[in-house]
């Protein structure tokens, strides 16, 4: 399978690249700074570009079967500004499957089910800026023709895989407070092998 990975130099994205290569897929890492890719593999192609440039995104989609995005908000609007370009390029190329990392803030609240967690008292985060950005992405994907999944981890410390996490559609697993970067990446990558969670937000936590 030919997999395009956006945000491949980030904490989660770089681990998704490793899992995909270990599973013998052909991986294209789309990055602004190729020097940040600290690995080499015969199945790894590094493509330099900017997700805010339409021509770069179109070029990156050539020959791709599935797109995984680990782009984060980084205090900017890059995520929401790039998403319409990504969706348009995928739809034009006939690429259906899109898996992206979101945040637990855009899952439904258990205490106030008609609100998202970041809009309710359930969220303890002082800043909701990142959640607002991910909420915009969620709205854009709902309007698209893609087969999308938004993986929504809660607090993301570094750490080894535990392989004992819980996942739940639309909600954060009850009592969940954290999930490691490694397990988040492993779960995200595993979705390429299943039709579970199509057009769904999925909460993940221990």
Task: Please tell me about this protein's structure.
Helix 3 (78-93) links the parallel strand 4 (66-69) and strand 5 (97-101). This protein has one domain: Rossmann fold, CATH 3.40.50.720. The model has no long low-confidence stretch (mean pLDDT 95). It has helices at residues 11-22, 54-60, 78-93, 129-142, 181-190, and strands at residues 2-6, 26-31, 44-48, 66-69, 97-101, 147-153, 166-169, 200-205. Helix 1 packs across helix 5 (181-190) and helix 3 (78-93) runs parallel beside helix 4. 29% of the residues lie in helices and 20% in strands. It has 5 helices and 8 strands; from the N terminus they run E-H-E-E-H-E-H-E-H-E-E-H-E. The protein has an 8-stranded mixed beta sheet, with helices on both faces. It starts with a strand and ends with a strand. The protein is an alpha/beta fold and 206 residues long.
Strand percentage lies at 15-25%
Estimated structural class? alpha/beta
- Label the overall shape: globular
Please, what is the CATH homologous superfamily?
A: NAD(P)-binding Rossmann-like Domain
Strand order of the largest sheet: 3-2-1-4-5-6-8-7
Spell out the helices and strands N to C.
Answer: EHEEHEHEHEEHE
Could you describe the largest sheet, including whether it forms a barrel? 8 strands, mixed
The CATH architecture name reads 3-Layer(aba) Sandwich
The helix count comes to: 5
CA distance, first residue to last residue = 30 Å
Which ranges are low-confidence, i.e. pLDDT below 50, for 5 or more consecutive residues? none
Return the CATH topology: Rossmann fold
Supply the CATH class.
Alpha Beta
- Overall pLDDT metric: 95
Question: How much helicity do the residues have?
Answer: 25-40%
Nearest-angstrom radius of gyration? 16 Å
User: What's the β-strand tally?
Assistant: 8
Number of structurally distinct domains = 1
